[in-house]
Backbone:
């Protein structure tokens, strides 16, 4: 089955059920009650975060640690302007909306390499396996910078000692399809950061939900990412980069050989101002995908473009290659993202 999307199952996911399921006594299905509880908690999360006293009145930029967790992973998602919580449908869902993991109905492994700003790079591996109505996922991320020579006041030209810094994350995710419209997932992540001779660790959690409305191909996504306790730094504690995403996506057009989808997503961080992501994807013959995206209310990296290619399966193995180009201006330079997805 092609890696771009198992089309038939996706189309029917929100079309076969035309109303909330009820019991014989007219009560709502437990899955819908669970959805209501999850959505209520996710919708209250930004309001609760807004009540945190940060101890100052200016912008909260830079007030949280583990910032590498906010770097977009997956070339397809990056090209879509990071409007991915309601569109992602493969193993990379562990990075965007863990609740979407059951949409990948075959085993997958996705390898991503990001040429990041200031000679840094981030590499990621995401693996997912369907288990009936359930799906499990594993993710590994490494972020690193080029080592540089230490300088001091007494030795401004360098001491000869090289300084290194980087981050590492490993996550384990699980998700379940509760109905043909609703999927919910959760993920636990171990995060470790090294700054020269110092290091910090934490355990964080993600929760996400994807809901097909039954109207057209419209689906809604809600995610809460990087939730966890504060971390003790060198001199004081710092917060985690908590993100709340609410998104919607729909199929604008579909013919025998062309499919066009779009998504819009609101992102609410606890350490910055909100921004909006928007993306558009056109798929031709289930082989070639053209993508573009735009992020509103961001300082750099506002627009993005990309392409994806999924050749016919060879020996029963599916392959997809994706590329995204995201410029960050003259100061920070351009970034290039590459992802290869394999489905045995």
Residues:
């Amino acid at each position: 089955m092609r890696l771009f999307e198992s089309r038939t199952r996706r189309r029917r996911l929100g079309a076969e059920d035309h109303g909330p399921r009820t019991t014989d006594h007219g009560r709502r299905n437990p899955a819908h009650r669970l959805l209501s509880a999850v959505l209520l908690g996710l919708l209250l999360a930004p309001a609760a975060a807004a009540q945190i006293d940060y101890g100052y009145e200016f912008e909260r930029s830079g007030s949280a640690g583990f910032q590498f967790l906010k770097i977009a992973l997956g070339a397809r998602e990056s090209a879509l302007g990071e409007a991915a919580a309601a569109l992602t449908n493969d193993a990379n869902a562990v990075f965007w909306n863990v609740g979407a993991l059951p949409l990948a109905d075959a085993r997958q492994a996705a390898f991503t390499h990001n040429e990041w700003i200031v000679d840094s790079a981030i590499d990621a591996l995401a693996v997912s396996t369907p288990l009936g109505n359930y799906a499990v996922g594993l993710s590994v991320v490494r972020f690193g910078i080029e080592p540089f020579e230490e300088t001091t006041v007494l030795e401004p030209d360098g001491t000869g000692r090289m300084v290194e810094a980087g981050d590492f994350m490993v996550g384990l995710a699980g998700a379940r399809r509760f109905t043909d419209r609703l999927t919910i997932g959760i993920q636990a992540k171990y995060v470790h950061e090294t700054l020269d001779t110092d290091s910090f660790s934490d355990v964080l959690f993600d929760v996400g939900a994807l809901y097909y409305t039954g109207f057209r191909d419209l689906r809604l996504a809600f995610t809460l990412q990087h939730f966890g306790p504060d971390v003790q730094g060198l001199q004081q504690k710092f917060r985690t980069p908590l993100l709340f995403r609410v998104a919607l996506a729909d199929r604008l057009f579909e013919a025998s050989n062309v499919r066009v989808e779009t998504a819009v997503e609101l992102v609410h961080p606890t350490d910055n101002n909100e921004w909006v992501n928007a993306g558009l994807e056109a798929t031709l013959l289930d082989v070639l995908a053209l993508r573009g995206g735009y992020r509103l209310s961001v300082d750099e990296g506002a627009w993005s473009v990309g392409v994806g290619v999924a050749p016919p399966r060879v020996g029963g193995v599916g392959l997809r290659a994706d590329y995204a180009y995201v410029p960050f201006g003259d100061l920070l330079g351009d970034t290039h993202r590459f992802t290869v997805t394999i489905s045995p």
In short: The CA atoms of residues 113 and 123 lie 5 Å apart.
